[in-house]
Amino acid sequence: MTPDPHSVGLVTPQTALFDTPLTLASGATLEHYQLVFETYGELNADASNAILICHALSGHHHVAGRHHPDDKAAGWWDNMIGPGKPIDTSRFFVVGLNNLGGCHGSTGPSSINPATGQPWGASFPVVTVPDWVHAQARLADRLGIERWAAVIGGSLGGMQALQWTLTYPDRVAHALVIASAPKLTAQNIAFNDVARQAILTDPDFHGGDYYAHGTVPRRGLRLARMLGHITYLSDDGMGAKFGRMLKSGEYRYGYDVEFEIESYLRYQGDKFSDYFDANTYLLMTKALDYFDPAQAFAGNLAAALGQAKAQFLVASFTTDWRFSPARSKEIVKALIDAKRRVSYAEIESTHGHDAFLMTDAPYVRLMRAYLNNVAKEVGA
Amino acid sequence: MSLRSDLQKIANDIPPGAHVLDLGCGDGELLAYLAARGVSGYGVEIDVDNVIACVERGVDVIQGDLEAGLAGFADQSFDVVVLSQTIQAMKQTEQILLDMLRVGREAIVTFPNFGYWQNRLQILLHGRMPVSETIPYAWYDTPNLHLCMLGDFEALCAKNGIRVVERVVMDGEQEITFLPNLLGSLALYRVSR
C-alpha cells in the first residue's frame, strides 16, 4: 500500500512531566502531573508556526495519523490535519494533548495518586477550562513555544481557544472557535446533569472509587454517552440516516432492539463505555458547566473579550442545536463590541454539533482560507 | 489596486482610521482596499462563497442576512456604514436605512437610478420594463424589489428626519451634475442624523 501523502503517517505519543505545583480554580493544588501529547510537522527556527489543538469532551492527544500501520482509525481530527490539509503540517507545527483529568495518559482520576499509591478516583480535583489553559501554557513553555500562531478547538475545545486569548493574550495570534459557546445555557447544563446522574447512580460507581472495587460504572457511562450522542446529531441527519428503519423489518412487540437508531445508540454507548473513564466524563462535563469568562466582568462578555489581542475565526453549523449558531453569535457580537478582529461563518450542514469533526466542503474551504493567511503571516 | 468606480467613490468618502461596516460586502473588495489605508471594520455577507473569499483576502466578515436587521451591532459603534447597490434588492428597505444610522454615525448608500434616461426611453419606446447596464435583469428574474429614483430616496430620508450630507450621481466613470435624475445611472448618498 502506498502511503497517503496527506497523512502525518505514523506518530508516537510523548509524555511531559511537571513538578511545579499547579493551583487550580477550585483552590486544590496538583503537586506533580503529566501531560501526554503528540506533535506533527516541524517547529520553525523562531518557533512561530505552532498550532495548538484543544480537544472536546471525549477527545485526546491523538489528533492525527496512526500509532500502528494496522490501526483501523486515524486520530480524531485526521481529516483536518496533515500535509496539504487545512491545518497543513508541511507549514505548521501542530500540538495535540490530552487535558488534565483525561483518561488517555495525562494525569486524571484513573492515574495513581503518588501520595496514596492508589488511583485518585473521587479525590481527583475538579478542573476548569482556565486550569487546562494554564497547564497547556506550561507544555508550550516546555516545547519552546512563546506564542501560538493559532489555538484551535471545537465545542469544549473552542472554549479553551477562547480562554487562551483571555488568560494569555500575548501568547496567541489567532483563535479558531468552532461550534462553541461563551457559556452553557440551563438546557445544556441539564443535559450534562442527566449524564452525570446516570454515572453517579450506577451501583458500580462506588462514589468514584470503582477502581478499588474492580468495577466499572459501564451502564451509567453508556447511558451518558447515548444521551450525549443524540444531542450531537441533528433531527434531520438522524432521520435521513435511520428514519424508522427496523432491524428485522417488523414490530416484535417487546423491548429488545427494534429500531436501527436504538441499535446504533446502544453500539455507540457500549463502545464508549469500553474505553472511556466515567470520572473523566464527570469532570469534563463540569468543566463545560463552569465555563463563563464573562462572570468576572459582571456578565459583560464584551468587557471580558476586550482582554483578547488575538484575531478570531468563529464558526457554527446550521443544524447544531447543542451549541447553536445563536451561541456563536454571542461570542461574535461581544468581539465586535470590543472592536476585536473577527470573522464569522455559519456553515450549512446536516451533521448537527458533530459537523465540526466532519468535512462539509464550505467548512473545509473556510478553514483552509483562514489558516493559509495564518501561515503566510509567520512565513510558513 | 483599482476599485470598481462606484466603490472608489465610496472609498473616497471614508477617512483613514475610520471604523466601517460594509453591508453586503461581496468578496470584500472595498474593505481590502480600505484596510491598506488604516480603515478597520467588518463586512456582512450572506453568501458563503463570498464569506470565504473575504477570509482569503484577510477581510473580517460576518456571515448574516441583512433582512434580519443589524441586531448584532451596537448603537453608534461605527463611523461609517456602507450599503452599495443592495438597498433596491431588500424587503426591509426603510428598516435597514434606520438601522444603519443606529449603528453608524454616517451611512453611505448607493443604488441604480431608475430615473436614468435609458430606462425612461425603453419604457417610452417599447412599453416594457427596462433592462440596462445598472439594472441588468428581466422583470421576472430580478433581485430588485424596490427600485427608486433620486427624489424617492430623498423623500424617504426626509420622512425619517435623515439628513443628506452629500449626493454624487454617476454614469459609468462620469460624475453627473446636470439633470442628474435623468442623466445619472447610479446614485451615491452620504446621510446622517
UniProtKB/TrEMBL annotation, chain A:
The keyword Amino-acid biosynthesis applies. PANTHER family: HOMOSERINE O-ACETYLTRANSFERASE. Its EC number is 2.3.1.46. Pathway: Amino-acid biosynthesis; L-methionine biosynthesis via de novo pathway; O-succinyl-L-homoserine from L-homoserine: step 1/1. It comes from Rivihabitans pingtungensis. Transfers a succinyl group from succinyl-CoA to L-homoserine, forming succinyl-L-homoserine. Keywords: Acyltransferase, Amino-acid biosynthesis, Cytoplasm, Methionine biosynthesis, Transferase. It holds the Pfam family Abhydrolase_1. Gene3D superfamilies: 1.10.1740.110, alpha/beta hydrolase (3.40.50.1820). Homodimer. InterPro entries: AB_hydrolase_1 (IPR000073), AB_hydrolase_fold (IPR029058), HAT_MetX-like (IPR008220). Belongs to the AB hydrolase superfamily. MetX family. The active site is at S155 (nucleophile), D320, H353. It is found in: Cytoplasm. It catalyses: L-homoserine + succinyl-CoA = O-succinyl-L-homoserine + CoA. This is Homoserine O-succinyltransferase. Residues 49-343 form the AB hydrolase-1 domain. Substrate binds at R225, D354. Its main location: cytoplasm. One of its GO terms (biological process) is homoserine metabolic process. GO terms for cellular component: cytoplasm. One of its GO terms (molecular function) is homoserine O-succinyltransferase activity. The record marks R322 as: Important for acyl-CoA specificity. It is an enzyme of class 2 (transferase).
TrEMBL record, chain B:
InterPro entries: Methionine_synth_MetW, SAM-dependent_MTases_sf. Transmembrane segments: none annotated. Gene3D superfamilies: Vaccinia Virus protein VP39. NCBIfam families: metW (TIGR02081). This is Methionine biosynthesis protein MetW. The lineage of its organism: Bacteria, Pseudomonadati, Pseudomonadota, Betaproteobacteria, Neisseriales.
